[in-house]
């Protein structure tokens, strides 16, 4: 019902209200912007049948092989069998729909659904997929096998100065604990905005330009080799 020039939340009195503008979102979806998710035709092909589960086989590395034998003419060089493994993955599907009231469009002279399609549908799905990505990450980090890869940096006093517990070298220490000398393999640093702000104030974070095959040239905050 219309009341004081408002119907379904839309203002339509042209003598009182100016033309419509787009409200700016306060949600930050820089995680997806970083390029952490990429299209993979092999995965699409593997999961393109009737099932939503696929498997990718792989060759195992030589990391766990024993040391080479001494070629002394006496030691029996027994061959080691090569091994492989597989990764199982599952597709997730999400759906959402919207509608606009014909009466609203008639009174306002605007097309809310057209505005949504042109300006809001891509940001909506970015936020939704980022939410799903973080939910999956939370599930992974909650498994028993990840217990040794986590360090509790929580604070208890609740003051904003406590974020200094994350200092200029914390990300290096955490990377060392998780991957040892391969800590530089990390490419993404996810943190609370307060932590990011403090690292920025300490000049640990700087903006660098990157090229994305999807987004083109983009500028992102970077901590060492990691996108924040």
Summarize the structure.
The protein has six helices and seven strands.
Structural notes for this entry:
The chain is an alpha+beta fold and 228 residues long. It contains 6 helices and 7 strands. It has helices spanning 30-33, 41-46, 102-108, 112-141, 170-179, 193-201; strands at residues 6-7, 10-11, 53-59, 84-90, 205-212, 216-223, 226-227. A 3-stranded antiparallel beta sheet has the order 5-6-7. It has a two-stranded antiparallel sheet with strand order 1-2. A hairpin with a 3-residue loop joins strand 5 (205-212) and strand 6. The longest helix has 30 residues, at 112-141. The mean pLDDT is 78.
Structural class by SSE content:
alpha+beta
Q: Which geometry do the CA atoms define?
A: extended
> Low-confidence segments, ≥5 residues, pLDDT <50?
none
Q: How many helical elements?
A: 6
The overall strand count is 7
Helix content: 25-40%
Jot down its keywords.
228 residues, alpha+beta
Mind sketching the topology for me?
Layout: E1 6-7, E2 10-11, H1 30-33, H2 41-46, E3 53-59, E4 84-90, H3 102-108, H4 112-141, H5 170-179, H6 193-201, E5 205-212, E6 216-223, E7 226-227
Antiparallel strand pairs: 1-2, 3-4, 5-6, 6-7
């Amino acid at each position: 019902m219309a009341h004081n020039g408002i119907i379904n939340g839309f203002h339509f009195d042209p003598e009182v209200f100016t033309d419509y503008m787009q409200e700016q979102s306060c949600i930050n979806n820089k995680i997806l912007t970083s390029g952490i998710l990429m299209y993979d035709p092999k995965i699409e092909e593997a999961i393109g049948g009737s099932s939503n589960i696929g498997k990718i086989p792989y060759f195992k590395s030589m990391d766990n092989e024993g040391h080479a034998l001494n070629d002394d003419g006496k030691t029996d060089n027994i061959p080691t069998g090569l091994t492989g493994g597989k990764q199982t993955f599952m597709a997730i599907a999400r759906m959402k729909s919207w509608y606009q009231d014909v009466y609203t469009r008639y009174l306002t002279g605007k097309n809310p659904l057209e505005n949504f399609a042109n300006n809001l549908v891509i940001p909506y799905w970015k936020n939704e997929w980022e939410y799903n990505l973080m939910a999956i990450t939370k599930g992974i980090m909650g498994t028993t096998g990840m217990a040794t890869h986590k360090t509790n940096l929580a604070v208890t006093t609740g003051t904003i100065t406590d974020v200094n517990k994350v200092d200029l070298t914390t990300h290096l220490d955490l990377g060392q604990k998780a991957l040892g000398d391969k800590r530089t393999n990390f490419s993404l640093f996810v943190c609370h905005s307060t932590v990011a702000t403090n690292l920025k104030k300490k000049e640990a974070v700087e903006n660098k330009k990157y090229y994305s095959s999807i987004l083109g040239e983009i500028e992102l905050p970077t901590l060492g080799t990691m996108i924040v």
